[in-house]
Every structure is written in C-alpha cells, then in structure tokens.
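Hey, I'm writing a tutorial for new members on how sequence and structure tokens pair up, and I'd like a real worked example in the thread rather than a made-up one. If someone can provide the structure for the chain below, I'll link this post from the tutorial.
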Amino acid sequence: MWEMFRQVLLGLLGLSAGFAAAAGLFSFIIGLGVVSDFADRTHTGEHVLLYETSVALGGILGNVFLVYQVAIPGGGWLLPVFGLAAGIFTGCWAMALAEILNVFPIFARRARLTRGIAWVILGIALGKGLGALVFFWQRW
C-alpha cells in the first residue's frame, strides 16, 4: 500500500515538475516575441492564438514521441523536413534572443563593421543550417 502511494506521489511530482518546466519554456518563447514577430511580419496577427497553440502542441507532442518512443511512419523522408523546420525554429529563436540582447549592434561596433553586416548574419544562418544538415546527414 505504502509503495503504491509513493509511486503515485512520485508520478504526480514528476508530472508537475514537467508542466512547470514546459510552461517556463513556452512563456520564454512567447516572451521573446518570436510568435508575435512572425505574425507581424506575415500580416496574420489575427492568428496569434493559433500560432501559440501550435508551439505548445509541438512541444507536447515532441515530448510524448520522445518519452514513449512512438514510431512515425515515413520517418525516413520526414527527417529532412523535421530537420529543416527545427533549424528554422532554432535560428529564429536565437535571432529573437540576440535581438533582445542587442548582440549584433554590440558585435558590429566592437568588430568595427561598417558594411556587410547583412552578409555576416547570412553567413551565421547558413553555417547553422549547414551544420544541422551535416549532423542529420550523418545520423540518417
């Protein structure tokens, strides 16, 4: 009896901690303004709630697939699509964080860059994408 109570208590504690961590991550993503910035740039502000729900649902389903080892049919051809989407998401998240922290203006001033800043940012993005491609290509 005591062991069952202990297992249920540990399960509830783990579930609560997972909810708290996920809520913190999702609020961080929303707080960075990634979703609202996308909605603003694409002129689809009326769908912000849908975008926020999609981000949360993607995180939840990703965790479910990871924890329960759910096999996805057609995973071989979906892997590059997922890699591209994950790379875009990671890049946008990094750019939003850098924008908040004003990393690029500080870097440009310290490196004395006056021209070609767009090329530097494009190089960073292409490097990230190429690195992800090489990483996923080796695992595939």
